[in-house]
From TrEMBL:
SMART domains: S1 (SM00316). PANTHER family: 30S RIBOSOMAL PROTEIN S1 (PTHR10724), SMALL RIBOSOMAL SUBUNIT PROTEIN BS1C (PTHR10724:SF7). This is 30S ribosomal protein S1. The gene is rpsA. SUPFAM superfamilies: Nucleic acid-binding proteins. Belongs to the bacterial ribosomal protein bS1 family. CDD domains: S1_RPS1_repeat_ec2_hs2, S1_RPS1_repeat_ec3. Binds mRNA; thus facilitating recognition of the initiation point. It is needed to translate mRNA with a short Shine-Dalgarno (SD) purine-rich sequence. GO terms for biological process: translation. One of its GO terms (cellular component) is cytoplasm. Gene3D superfamilies: Nucleic acid-binding proteins (2.40.50.140). Residues 78-150, 162-228, 249-318, 335-404 form the S1 motif domain. GO terms for molecular function: mRNA binding; structural constituent of ribosome. Transmembrane segments: none annotated.
Length: 417
């Protein structure tokens, strides 16, 4: 083999290099048999295992895992962290905060509500947020304070989004009311309460109300609320609902709110106002609205029309009563003596107004027992006159009156005496 220079570039202890060389060189028979023996031994014998090296590697891995498991995590006072509930009993709960030992949170640190057991608050497996009250080996945690911080943050968002929140009135304090909003104390100033007529501050104690938040400061734990906007919204909603429910032709009671030359504004309930135009005030001649009604007076009105688009309501005062001519015969029977006001003067006679919408004519010949040449010299507009009902034309709404008949009757009675 030396003569053939077989081992010139081969390591005698390296079977693989011999095999590689054998692929390109023709080996002597004795070398081929040696190679086969080495291959057989390699297949039958397992590789030697360095047990010391493997043990050391395993120990290092275990130590690394243990260090990861039991390495004390570092927290700062005031931090909000997430922990897992691992055990719950009546007095509190144990949580895993990633430290060597589980941390116990007493019941008073879990909630500020009145509960019988910690199981009413948390369950095993729950992931909860807690606040670090004390760091170091003796870690102290509080779910209650973390929840409060979250509540303040939520309230601030609701304030920014202008959302209404529900609150319970706890008690009367200086300057207003103390509210409870899901466990957070809030102040409702007296100026923002929006007391209704007959209400007092203490009348709201114990009641649940809705408010808007006008200030939320989590740093100093200050929350200020207002009820005014809620009441305004409720009032507006009620007004619109009342407007929708109005029915044409129905009669409602209202209050005169304002009087103008062209008509009268009337509140018919819940802030809904309607207008009575001057021609709908009376059945008779148009009168100054101030002569018909007064501000603050309670009156009945009939709805003539409702426009929901512009929220205008048209009303009538005169149509709440029957037209006077419908009952004229009952009120002014033929032969009865009536009194009226001179409404108009014509060359042929005087128009006398007996009542709203009811007029009668006294012919010039029926004004007196004596001849009258010029009526203006006898009466003037606004004078009060008595007359006797001589005839009624209900269909055409006409009535004939006579003052002369009264005078003649009086003269006859005097002659009889």
């Amino acid at each position: 083999m030396e003569e053939k220079n077989f081992y010139e570039n081969v390591n005698p202890n390296d079977i693989e290099s011999i095999l590689t060389k054998a692929a390109s060189e023709k080996l002597p028979q004795s070398v081929k048999e040696e190679v086969r023996r080495e291959e057989t031994i390699k297949e039958e014998k397992p590789e030697k295992i360095n047990f010391n090296e493997n043990v050391n590697n395993n120990v290092q891995k275990q130590n690394h895992n243990q260090n990861e498991t039991f390495l004390m995590k570092s927290f700062k006072k005031g931090d909000i962290i997430t922990v897992t509930v691992v055990k719950v009993d009546a007095n509190g709960a144990y949580v895993n905060a990633g430290t060597k030992e589980d941390v116990f949170i007493p019941l008073k640190g879990l909630t500020n509500k009145q509960v019988n057991s910690a199981s009413d608050v948390v369950r095993v497996g729950d992931k909860i947020n807690v606040m670090v009250l004390r760091d170091g080996p003796n870690l102290v945690l509080s779910k209650k304070l973390a929840d409060n911080i979250k509540k303040y943050e939520d309230l601030k968002k609701k304030m920014e989004n202008e959302e209404k929140v529900k609150a319970k009135v706890e008690k009367l304090i200086k300057g207003g009311l103390l509210l409870d909003i899901d466990g957070v104390s809030a102040f409702l100033p007296q100026s923002q309460v929006g007391l209704k007529k007959g209400e007092s501050l203490d009348s709201s104690i114990g009641k649940e109300i809705e408010v808007y938040l006008i200030e939320v400061d989590p740093k100093v734990k200050r929350v200020i609320a207002s009820r005014l906007k809620v009441l305004q919204e409720e009032k507006e909603q009620l007004r619109k609902q009342t407007l929708v429910n109005l029915k044409k032709g129905e009669i409602y009671e209202g209050t005169v709110k304002a009087i103008q030359d062209f008509g009268v504004f009337v509140d018919i309930g819940n802030g809904v106002e309607g207008l009575i135009r001057i021609n709908e005030l009376t059945w008779g001649r148009r009168k100054d609205p101030h002569e018909v009604v007064k501000v603050g007076e309670k009156i009945k009105v009939r709805v003539l029309s409702v426009n929901l688009d512009n929220e205008k309501v048209s009303l009538s005062l005169r149509q709440t009563k029957p037209h006077p001519w419908e009952i004229v015969e009952e009120k002014y029977p033929i032969g009865s003596i009536v009194e009226g006001t001179v409404l108009r003067i014509h060359p042929f006679g005087v128009v006398l107004e007996l009542d709203e919408g009811i007029t009668g004519l006294i012919h010039i010949s029926q004004l007196d027992t004596k001849r009258i040449d010029k009526i203006e010299n006898f009466v003037k507009i606004g004078d009060k006159l008595q007359a006797k009902v001589m005839s009624i034309d209900k269909e055409n709404r006409k009535m004939k009156l006579s003052r002369r008949a009264i005078l003649e009757n009086e003269q006859g009675e005097n002659q009889n005496k």
